[in-house]
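Hi U.,

Before I forget, here's the chain from the pilot set. I'm dumping it here mostly so it's searchable later in email.
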Amino acid sequence: MNKKLINISLILGLLLTPVASHSQQNDTGSADRKKGIEHMSKELGFSADQRTKVEVIFDTERKKVDAIFNEEKQKLQKVQQETRSSLQGVLTPEQMNKLDQKMRQNAQRDPKKKQDRENQALEN
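Structure:
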């Protein structure tokens, strides 16, 4: 039974990993993008007009990528909710509590997973 709980918690934890990675990248991404464009501008010798146009192109691309990640995040959250509902239909309340505790313990060991759990709790 413990192996099943561990496997289930690992599966659920893995579902959130890409979402968390993307949100953390967005926090630092803006400064990195500006540095990247500045570096590219110097390396390729952009004119002021070219630099402005390149910034617009990358900004448009970033918005498209963000939209894709947001869509996928919603899909992942739906799957997680469905999985949790299915588990609640199979496991006893005591088993669900144990699973929740195990997932919290795993999240505490891994700060990234802990942040994922906190984000998920806020969104639910």
